[in-house]
Amino acid sequence: MTAVATRAARPGESSATGGWHAISPLVTALLAAAGAFLVYRVFIRTGLGQTIDSAAMRGGDIHHPQVSEVLSRTLNATQFVILGIVCVIAAVVGILRRRVDLSIGVAVLVVAANVAAQQLKAHLDRPDLDGTAMSNSFPSGHTAAAASVAFVLVMAFPRALRGAMGLLGAAYVAVVAVATVWAEWHRPSDTIAALLIVLACGSLIMWVIRLRRSAGPRASITPARVATLPLALVGAICTAACVFGLAAVAMSERVMPDLVSGRFAFLTGVVAIMAATAGTFYFWVRLTAGDPLPEQGGKVR
Q: Could you list the residue ranges that cross the membrane (predicted)?
């Protein structure tokens, strides 16, 4: 795992970036919350947004047996009992590392993210603008649960493992999110909003941790590129594909009927989910890599 270990900053880097280091989690939290609100306004409160979102969900008629089996197994494995066990393991790891603040943060992150997702789903209004008369499913509880658990594993494990945990967590969450759309439990916007909500909650917790340790010594840490570069590349490629796909689906719905198929709409939703997953994990890996820690025995933990 040395390939994904983080690098300590050179002398002078800490003072130059100290102000941004202190406020970057708060800025990330605000941007993530704004992003979730924007997704709600566009894909829940507008007719075209609802139509595109529903078309992506209905187009997920996959008959490939191996793909269906992977999606079904992953979705069935996302049970709250299993996720709770993983959270307990992450909290124990934090305690063993003598990081009580991380153990508390793990619990708060999971509770806050999942309570927020469930409360929003229960109280947000979804007007019937696309004629489907479907009840509100925004945001996705399954995606929020999976993402919160992946986030706490990245947060609680030592820095040398955080990059690898981030890549594995992003892959797992992407499959869970796509599976909920494939099963027609959720629309793509539900899963994207859930990811942003978890990022907002996690960033706020990381901000509090940094404030708590701001008076002590700090080593500025940057994540290894082997962890962040794949996330950045996947995010950029999928974002470009998503923009093209959304434009094509919107044109098909409003200007040129049958321009694209339902399968194309579903694949557009898939790349949108992958872009959101890569983006949220990219920022989370960077935030946790800069987690302020005291030095013990000349080594940064």
A: 20-40, 77-95, 102-120, 140-157, 164-185, 191-209, 229-252, 264-285
